[in-house]
């Protein structure tokens, strides 16, 4: 496998570093670029790519040099030195089989990288939607605080006019204090969440994050037919099973003889005691070496081991597919549930606003209880906060569907 992926080229951007992130997609790209876990997984994939060139190479040739301390006399003269070179060759197809095993394992590492990347992006999306929820809660709480101040002023004006009770003012103060505390708690929670979000992007913990003021939802009758077949975890196990099958084939080939071809070159000195034909002629001798794999037990064990591993990976893939499918169904339910709750809470907000307007009008005319006004106001706030929570749950469930189906931010592959 010769392809690589580049962190600097994605489907969603043309340049990086000179823009200020404004959308979730921008933050996801920053996470892909910066997150240490994603970069570590990618480095593991790059390292795995370097295995194939190693295993498909021939073993290094051997060179032997021998010098005779005492000359060995031959008919043509004394042997002075010997040079031997030998190159071993594995059985036909062995190198290709080794490369195939390494390539499939590298592909499995690539899928493991995709899984790590998608998991980080799901975490980024989830934190982003939590920040959206907190932003909405801050807005509703601040509006509630301002409205309660207006209610307090209204109660004071009625007390001054002699038509109201001081207890109404105190009740408004009590609820204002609750709202102030609620704002403080949300701000503290937002600081923690902001630090967690920026940690995923490997940025300063206090760096600002831009979130939208509103989100869009799918129609209530939207149909989900997404499958988990493209989930990187399944593809990783599939590649590992294929690698194990390839290793089984490799074990068969490694059980065949290895052949060595070599050459001996002997330097022969001249004879001085007599004249012979070809006096002092050096000797050249071709050599052939064949290994004898007669101990077959280890090769049989390697084949069985590879077969068991392949079966294990295939069973794990089947089990994981069932698990992911169940999780996907749960995510579909979460989307449907969030849509239903959103409709309910929005209707409740609308109804509560109508009731509240009627109560306020009656209170101004001294025809209703101020405590009832405050109660409905708190119910309205509760439903507004619930809308924000349901929207965040809805968006998170959609992000999880993308994660389970392997659809999260696909990148170009370079071959």
Automatic annotation (TrEMBL):
It comes from the Bacteria. Pfam families: OEP. GO terms for cellular component: cell outer membrane; efflux pump complex. The keyword Coiled coil applies. Residues 310-355 form a coiled coil. The keyword Magnesium does not apply. PANTHER family: OUTER MEMBRANE PROTEIN TOLC (PTHR30026). This is TolC family protein.
